[in-house]
Design goal:
The protein has 96 residues and is an alpha+beta fold. The chain has one domain (5-93). It has 3 helices and 4 strands, in the order αββββαα. It has helices at residues 5-9, 39-75, 83-93; strands at 11-13, 20-22, 26-28, 36-38. The strands form 2 sheets. The chain has a two-stranded antiparallel sheet with strand order 1-2. It has a two-stranded antiparallel sheet with strand order 3-4. The longest helix is centred in the middle third of the chain and has 37 residues, at 39-75. The model has no long low-confidence stretch (mean pLDDT 86).
Length: 96
Amino acid sequence: MTADPDAATGESRCWCCGRETAEDALVRLGSHPEVGICVNCVHFLRRKARDLQATAMRQRLRGAAESARREVMARGWHDRPVIGPVLRWINQRLPW
């Protein structure tokens, strides 16, 4: 049986970037304690997750806005004298 060279130095490799890091500076995943991620990669992964969540939220908001727009058009509210100009103004400024 061979000894693990990292065990003698107290360092492990980050599973994300491969950089050798002190064992106490790695973040271990709860369900997979064999996975250690350095602090730099933790911040990177957090930003990526936040971007994915923002993208999903934008898609949901865009879908809700499009659904509301279809309802307004189906009911003819955009042609009403008081609320119509406001709805048309909003529609012109929506980002699609």
